[in-house]
Design a protein that fits this description.
- α1 packs across α7 (about 240-255).
- α1 links the parallel β1 (about 5-10) and β2 (about 40-45).
- The N and C termini lie close together (about 10 Å).
- The protein has helices spanning about 30-35, 50-65, 130-145, 145-155, 160-175, 215, 240-255, 255-265; strands spanning about 5-10, 40-45, 70-75, 80-85, 95-100, 105-110, 110-115, 120-125, 180-185.
- By secondary structure, it is α/β, with parallel strands linked by helices.
- The protein has a six-stranded mixed β-sheet with strand order 5-6-2-1-3-9, sandwiched between helices. It has a three-stranded antiparallel β-sheet with strand order 4-7-8, with helices on both faces.
- It has one domain (about 5-215, about 240-265).
Length: about 270
Amino acid sequence: MTTASKKVAFIGCSHFAGIEQETQGKNNWTFQLSQKFPQHEYRNYSRGGQGIQGYQLALLDAKIWGADIVFLNRTYMGRWQLELDVEGHEFRYYKKSFIGDNWSEWMPTFTFVWGSVSSGPNYHPGPADNRHNKIHAKIENYFKSNEEFWRVQHNNNQFRLTWELQWYANVHNLYNFENLFLVDWSKHTHEPVDKEHGHTTPTRSSTTWDIDVEGFFTKNDPSVKIEHLGLTVSSTDHHLNLHGNTRLLNEYILANPKVKKALDTQ
């Protein structure tokens, strides 16, 4: 009996990204997964710095595509995205790159800016947007002149941080995919983003695993950082190297019976 083909979507930040992230590509666990289960079709919507607003748009496209399985990464808190009104743009994603026989990377065609509590704004022009330099300068000046609002009031207030946690905790119900697996990456996603203002956050929100990824790798000695275990690209690039990605896939992702069953279903 042959195993039925399914549509699998990856939606996350740089930890889920492939070609979009310079040190990942075929090393990333998402591509490795496609090699272990080649009967399925894979779309990777992940990109560095992406937060909930980007996730919401990608989830909608994955739903329209008909994804059967979604892996969603709970990224660092306080990341924002703002779509811009550009003539001729529409809600659509395009295949930016393709590696292997069944893994492709999908990016939005529309223009937007994104950032976080500590970085940005960053500018993403759609493929048809030729105004990059001019509009980027205007956007940068705007955000600099309103920095207090965007960094504290918009994306780092207590209400937003609480909303983010509640959104992650309920995302499997909101989108009703056949299988949606939420991955908490780091224990740091649960700490206050702005300690100066005394923000506190509730407990973790993963609905799939009982421990975050970094916590899983450091559970034998919580005082050790993941970059000291030979699992990351370097001491300054904390994305997983090939060895780290392979361990993540085999010992964490596929060690979950629900994930393995969803991928193995005949």
